[in-house]
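Please discuss these two lines.
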Amino acid sequence: MKEAVDIKELVKRKKIKIVGDNSRVITLPHVPSKIPRINNIIKRVLQFSEAEAEKQLEKTLFLFADRHRDLEQLLMRHYDRIAEYVVKKESISKTQKLLLGAYFTMEYSIESAALFNPSIVLHPDQSLLPEGSVRFIMSLRATGEGHISSIVFRSGILDKNMSFNFDSVSDYVETPIMVHDPFYDINRFRLKLKDLKAWNETSKRILSSLPTFFKHEELRNSIRDIFLDSDFSADSWTITTIHWLADSNYKIRFDDDTAISERVIFPISANESKGIEDARFVKFTHENGHEIYYATYTAFNGRRILSQFIETQDFQTFNMITLNGEGVKNKGMALFPRKINGKYAMLSRQDGENNFITYSDDLHYWGEGILLQEPKQPWEFIQIGNCGSPIETDKGWLVITHGVGNMRQYSIGVILLDLEDPTKIIARLEEPLLTADEEEREGYVPNVIYSCGSMIVNDKLILPYAMSDVATRIAIVDVNDLIDNMKYEA
């Protein structure tokens, strides 16, 4: 056993700071909610002569084309959203369509407010690297106007000397194409409706006509049939909830020519309209050796939160899926990187205050958890939670935690769980591993440091963390020294 040292001496903060760039913008639809306003805009634009329309479009392209990879394609996509309101649309020119698209488009600076709450995983491509180096992908929570959050990515190489070489960040940012799931599982759909208190006569009738695995179009047809049934009064809130649930399960894909730093997962469905928050990515290994990346995140619609799940093989195509069960009622779920004793395992904070662990046979359904950890130290009296997925070591599951103390100070701590029975804490740091220093404590939310995922490379803990909800830094900790300085439970 090595001689104990001051915990602060274990941590080496890297000089790198990852900050937002407000010049990185995406295009979003900018469509009024009231149909008369849409019609008025269309009438005004179509009053232009073809020459005037060409002049207006040329001016728009001159100002904005170099900010987006294919602006005309984006404008046409937004024109398609309002095309149903255009009278005699078959007679209007491409110029008029593009100009209409421009009037129903806005730019959004995804990182203008903050770039924080990172997680880090090994890149799926580890080929052609110098000895001792690894390639990584870092996800971050980007926040812009209206404090709407999305997921962005950075990539790079970590060499054998623990030096970070980030790939250049593209000037462009791309949103993906969205498609609904080809099929929905009626049993999971029913379970989620029960979770949402929307299992009633309306939802029963809608689902009764659907097969075990149904398509989005079949669901829409069943809802339509309910509305056309004059002998039945459908509950409108339930209908809205069913649409909301269906739209929460979808697939997105980025174009082949986009770099990882160009890809942004921006809120698409209604349930995440106010933000996609705090993605915790983990590289998961199935029992047959198949590797895939999973992540949990919090969807927020301005009123309530919903725990969501991401699946990806390549960080180009992503499946976005709702989670079900009593175990997903709060924030901060973090999946273990493999099954334990034949079951999936997840950390969570089901009551908003304590750390829990829960097991499941189904990745998408989680029951009530087992209490794992309660606040004990002064720096965590308010609440505790995880800072990402557990990391497997030969001495136990290393779990990075966060605690909230007086004056809402966030600190990062560490616990060690038994490998075979992770409901048992076998060791813990009694002091925080990290607290905000004088530079890190100033920001949008003062005195907060926070992480959503770490990894171990060459016996070093690579811990990216956010500084006061504004920017991101990286800390390096020797894993053996860290464990040697933990207090083992009696």
About this structure: The two ends are 17 Å apart (CA to CA). The first strand starts at residue 11 and ends at 13. The mean pLDDT is 93. The CA atoms of residues 333 and 348 lie 4 Å apart.
